[in-house]
Structures are given as structure tokens and as C-alpha cells.
Amino acid sequence: MNPIQEILVLHHSHTDIGFTHPQPVLWELQRRFIDRALDLLDETEDWPAESRPNWTCETTAPVIHWLHNTSRAQIKRFRHHVEQSRLSIGAMFCHFTPMTSADEIARTLQPIRELRETLGAPIRAAIVHDINGLPRPCTQLLLDAGVELLIMGINVHFGGFPLTRPMAFHWIGADGRPLLTFNGEHYQLFDRLCGLKTAGMAGMAEGLGRYTAQLAAQGYPLDFAFLTATHHTLCDNNPPNAATARLIRQWNEEGGYPLVRYATPEMLLERLRRVAHVPSHSGEWTDYWAFGVQIAARETRISRESKGRLEAAELLHCVTGAGDSLTRRHFAEAWHAVAIFDEHTFGSLNCVEHPDFDDTATQWTLKAACAHQARSLANLLLRDQLDALARNPVEACGIEGVLVFNPAPVARRAYVRMPEEWLCGKWDHLSAGVHFLEITRERWERGEGALIGPIDLPAWGWKIVPVAELKQAQAEASLGAGEGFIESPFYRLEFDPETGRILALHDKRLGLQWIDQASPWQFFGLVQETVRDGGGRDAFFDFDWEKIPYGHSCWKPDWPAQRLAPARLQSLATRIEPDGASVTFRWADAPGVDGLEQRIKLPAHRPAIELLATFRKLDIATPESIYFAFPLALTGWRAHFDPANQPSEFDTGQLPGTCRDYVTAGQWVAVHNGDGCVTLACPDDPLVQIGGFHFGKEQQSVPRENPALLLSWAMNNYYNVNFRGPSQPDPARFRYELTTQPRFDPAASTAAGAEAAQRTEVHPVVKLDGPIEGKLIEVHGAGAMLQGIRSASDGSGIIAILSNVTDNPVCAKISIPDRRVRQAFRCGTLEQNLGALMVENEMVLAPLEPHSLLTVRLLIEQR
After folding, report:
1. What's the angle, vertex CA 9, arms to CA 260 and CA 290, rounded to 5?
2. Contacts of the segment 560-563: beta carbons below 8 A, 24+ positions apart
3. For residue 714, what is the enclosing H or E element?
4. Closest by CA position to 140, among listed 655, 780, 804
5. I need a labelling partner for 317 at 20 to 30 A (CA). Which of 262, 389, 427, 741 fits?
6. pLDDT (tens digit, 9 = 90+) per residue, 263-317?
7. Are strands 87-89 and 55-57 parallel, antiparallel or unpaired?
8. How does pLDDT run across 756-794, given as a tens digit for each residue?
């Protein structure tokens, strides 16, 4: 251990897109803050070097906004201070929730290229403040973007941090590469330590003395400390603080010890490079703050579905080339809305304390609008692309066929719904009216229209079925339903017709019964969790701001929980349809909700269990959660989930100290042992608790004594700031798919999650005057998955992100069936070509190491 010789201070405006101000105001304020930073740097250029202030733009989103709304003169000033190493930019677009996919993260890193070129900023460090974690695929994407350092500044309000802090370590990515990481203190701790609001020099001496003594006591090994500062008046979304700069100068000139020096992220990087030994740690960095996303369950579902439809539309656009510059702008706007919705501030700082404030309503409305804007544009773009694939004219009457499109990476036998009129060839086609199909589509989801099928579709494939061949589906003889059971070729579900309790789920292929029959919780049963005796949010967390910024745990693991299930079955109905056998339960007196209806369906054509729950949430402002329970007859179990769509092992595959009470799934979670594996695809709800009800326990490891209880955490209002207000009295809909396998296979679970997330699309075809079937792309190789695809930013080809979800290396083979691949390149995250890839017989050979991501550029042309 070395005595602290110097304290480095990173000065920044913490970026919350919302929270303190309505979002349009925030963007304008952040623009002004950068202008004020330029003034401050100009004004202090003649200060002594050790006291001269620096400024760091923590994230790229405000800088891009400033850049697109400023003058050449201001850009010149910005470049000047970058050249003087006094002005820096962090690599992350904003501070995200863990709902982001690897493809979305890669998209949001693209501004780095423009900012490096235009402003001369090196952007060698990513700064992640406030939020409690980051999906592990970020390590690969950051390294491939030329980012060498990750700086974390976790806020332990309702949270926690891994290992110890402060601490430098190499975070080993899933691909085995290290990312230098500084697990720093709570952002703004310099202001708090020094009492900058009131205490002056005396407070600075007392605070820094106490802090350096604390570092010595915990064996901190470095001879410098690193802290961050925002503004003592308001810690979030604030301008540079000239008063702090004057105080630091006074401290240094009066011989204060240790020396306090402003630093940029690049300066910290250089210091850490000199450290002789930096330990390495591997594992997923799960985020305690993740539970906030289900305070906006409806918008979260809408946003997640919009991502899937955007991905489908962009795949069509990349291969067919349909659209113009406005189309590309719409894609950019849609993905921007997705990113802003996935940013971590869902609402006002007053959301719980003052839900009736107009400002609270304004900030939530603007946040929710991001999900709805993304949905609107995604639906329009997908309809436009399907219209182009169908080769429809601008205006026509009648149709000759129906286009059926499978956007999923797995072949499927599809049953689809469509208007009865289509069977008669009736349709008034207007290109301006394709968006109207979305209203019809929602009706189909509720069982309206004609059911057609089965139609066999390849992965990423499509067929045009002539109207004359559109036949209403006929019931499969292998389906069964009766008193207390439904049955498919793959499963038999048994239930008590009086109480509605699910008694057994028999797997015909594997010879297993999957439900823990001794569990007090119903399979797919709703559970309401509240604080016993009407307690508040302080029942599970101690809101002591004298402790929180200093990293003290404020969780109350033994908080008194009350959990209730629906009291009475109102009705039960079984049904055999051509595509499956189903049972529908309607419940009376369901706690916390009204009109609870649940359907369990056993499809005829594939080994899956489809689950759907609908209800209207009651307007409850006191602390409350809604779960759906899946008690599984699996002992000695393990579990995996897919943060950012890459498999990771629950508990043992996480960094010590990260959140094990709940985790965020990209698309699925799998629980398994030596007997078999259950995969739950959760397209609408990313939050899961694995092993039992765990909120607030701050577990360092998860006990496995009992059979596995898997919980989909559908809704909650536990967070007291930062997210939507204390209640969400909205219509709610949650869809899941459960599949079973003889053993855990990450590729099979990934495929199941993708199949549930990407549903079959249908579209009218006016004339049958071209090909009637095709595939957009092919990806071969065990465990090789397509994470995303987009047109290259420079217009040269298309960019695809591939991943290997397995423990073994694989050579992925990629082809575009209706196009010739002329050349292919391995790329960095920012689309820079790094080397040519071999192309054989118009198929690209892309080697993938275990658990790795690979960005590929494909140059294609017409055959």
C-alpha cells in the first residue's frame, strides 16, 4: 500500500435524460453546459498547470446534440481544448438499463466515429455512472471500438457494487479479452466529501483526510485516488462549477495535501497503465437498478416488440434495398427512440413523492412517447418493406395472394390469422394505408379473423400463398381436451377443474413431469407481493444519504413481505383449435389486478407451451409487485440467461457482489439439471427471479436446497425516484413460451427465445407476378447467431453482427440467397475494416471464438 500522493478529479455533468428536467429542456441545458465549459476552460488557460480545470462530457448523446446545433467557431474552440488535453468525451451514448442487446449497444457506439473525426477527441474511455452494471458483451464492443478503459461510478441507492471499491481490475469478457476497468466511487463523491456547498477549505481538509484514511484502512494499493465532481447545488444535469475550480486552486496554492488535480479519463488511463499489477475478474455485471423497467410494464413490452420489428424491417431493407434516404432517416429516428427509452431515467425525481405534479406527468409522458414513437415507425417501416417485397403498386383493388414472412432465425410451421375478406381476394390497397394493418393485427392477436395454415417457412424466409390456396386450418387429430386436461403430441397438462390449480405437465418426448407439485405456488400463477402491515419503501431499504454515497449497504434483507394469489376461480374453458389445445382461466378476486385471464396453449405443430396473461392493473401506489410463478421439479439446478442476447450462467457466472436477487434476460432464461432443461422465453418481460422471491436480500450466492422456483417479475413500483410514478393502472398483457430439452443447450435456448420474440408477419399481395418464396439470409454453424444487421453508415454494403453462444469455436457461413456476396471483411464496432474474410461459392466464412461477437461487412450485388 502506498500513501495517497495525489487526488485526480473528473469534472462532468451527470447525464440523466429526464429526472431533473423535462427531456427537451435537458437537451438544451446540456448544450449550454458544453458552451459554459468552453468559457471556463478559456478563462483558466493561464492558471497553474496543476490547478487548471478540465471538463469531461460524460456521454456522447449530449455532445452529438451540441455538435448539430453549434457553430464552426465553437467546434474550433472545442478542438483546441481537446488538443490541450483539457476536454474529453466518454464513449457511451448514455447510461442504459440492461434491456439493450449487443446490436443496440453497437449502434449507440457509432457516434464515436463522428466525434473523433470532427472534434479530434480520442474517446479511449467509457464512463458509466449511476447505474449498477453493464451487460458483459459491452467489453467486446468497447474494445473493438478502440476504447481501452471503463470507469464505473455506481450509485448504491437501491443498489450495490462488485468486489470492492475503489479498485482497478481487468474485466475479462466472455471472449477472454480484458477490459481495464476502474470500479470507482459514487459519482459526485468529491463534492460530498469536501462539503463544497458550505464547508470551504476546512471542509475540504476534513473530508479528504477522512477519505485517505479510509483508503489506507482498506489496503488501497495505488498512490493516487480518483474521484468525480458534478455541482454542489444539484448533482445531476448541471454545468461546470467554477467555485470548485477556485477552491482546488486555493487548496494547491496553500500547500494542501494531497495535491488535487483535475483529470480527464485519458489521464486516468495513463496512470493505470503504470500500475505494476492489476488483478483480473470474470463474470456478468448484473444491475441492481434493473427492476425499475417493470414500473413501466406496458411501454417496456411495446419497446421490446418494436425492436424485433425494426430488426425484421432492417433485414428486409438491407437485402432488398427498398426505400430511399427518408427511409434511412426513419430507421435512425426509430433506433434513437429505442435507445432513449432504454436510458435509465424513466421519470421525474418527484415521481413517487409528488405524482400529481405536472412536471412528473410531463417527464413520464415524454419518456413513454419514446416507446410509442419507436413502435409507430417500426410498424410503418416493416409494412413498407413487406409492401416492397410483395411488389405492390401504390393503389389497387383486390388481392391475388398473401405474403407470409418469418423474421425468426429458425424454421417454423406457422398458423397465421388474416381478415376473412382476404380469402375472397378483397382488399383496397393504398400504400398510405399499410400502417392501418397494425390495428387489424392487434385484432388478430385476440383471435379475430380466419386461421390459415400450416405454412412451412425457412428461417428468415417468406412465401406468397395464392388466394385460391388460402384454406382455413383444420384441427389436428393429435390434440385433446377434456375434464381436467389438455394434450398435444408433445405435452399433457393436467389441472383441477374446480380450483384451476395446475397439477402436472407431462413431457411425452422426455418422459418427465416438470411441475413441482409440492410448491405452494401455482404454475403460471399470479402472485402479488406487498409489504406486510402496509409498510412503505423504507421497509426494504434505508434511505440514509449519509451512507449511500459512501458505499454502505442500506438493504434490509429481512423485510416483511406478504404474498397473495388469486382467491377464486371464476370460470375455466378448454378449447381445441387447428393449431393447438388450450385452457383459459378467469379469476375473481385476484390481488392487485382486475379481470385476470390466463391462457395456456399446447401447439399442435411444435414442442412448446404458449402462455398469455391479461388484466387491468389496479391503481395501487403503495409498494407492490406482480409475479408469475413457475415452480419446477428440478433439484440441484443451475440456470442461464442471456444479457444482451449472450448466454451467461446465473450466480456462478456473475462478478462477486453484483445483483443475484433478480436478473435481466434478453429473451430467455433456462433452468436445468442432469435430468433436463426448461427454457422460458420472455419477450414481453425481461425481469426474472431465479430460485425464489429474492428482492432486497442482497445475496452473494443463491441457495439451491429446494426445487427451482422461477419467477417472471411482471410489474413493481418499488423504486422511489427515477422511474414512472407509484402506480401504473394500465391494461397489461404478458406473453411467454416454455420449451423443454434433455439438457441445457445455449443454442437451443437462444433459438427458443428468438422464435418467441419474432412472430410471423402477413401482408396482402396485389398481383402474383414474381417469385413466390425466398430466403433473405442464411447463417450456418452450430451456435452461430445473427445478432443484428444494418446498412453500412458509409453506404458500402451491409453490416452484420454475429455471435457464438457456445463453448466451442465455430466457423459461421453466411450467404444472401438472392444476392451475390462479392467481398467480406471483419470489422470493428465502428465499421472499420480490419481484414478480409474468405468467400467461397458466394458464402462468407467467418471464424468465431467461443462466446465472441464478430462484426462483418458484406459487399453484395445482384446475381
Report:
1. 150
2. 560/531, 560/532, 560/533, 560/535, 561/529, 561/530, 561/531, 561/532, 561/693, 562/529, 562/530, 562/531, 562/532, 563/527, 563/528, 563/529, 563/530, 563/693
3. strand 709-716
4. 804
5. 427
6. 999 999 999 999 999 999 999 999 999 999 999 999 999 999 999 999 999 999 9
7. parallel
8. 999 999 999 999 988 899 999 999 999 999 999 999 999
